[in-house]
Amino acid sequence: MNMSYQRSFAFGAIFVLVLCSSVGQAQLLPIFDWVRSFFGNYEEPPYQLVANLSDTIEERIYPAKRWACTEQFLTPKAKDTKRSEMFMSLFAYIQGKNDGEQKIDMTVPVTTKVDHRNGDLYSYEMCFFIPQEFQANPPRPENRNVRVVSFPELHVYSIRYGGYSTQELEQEQMTLLTTTLKNASIPYFEENQGPRATYFVSGYDSPTKFWSRRNEVWVLGKDNKPLPTHVPSVD
Question: Residue 93 belongs to what domain range?
Answer without folding.
Answer: 3-220
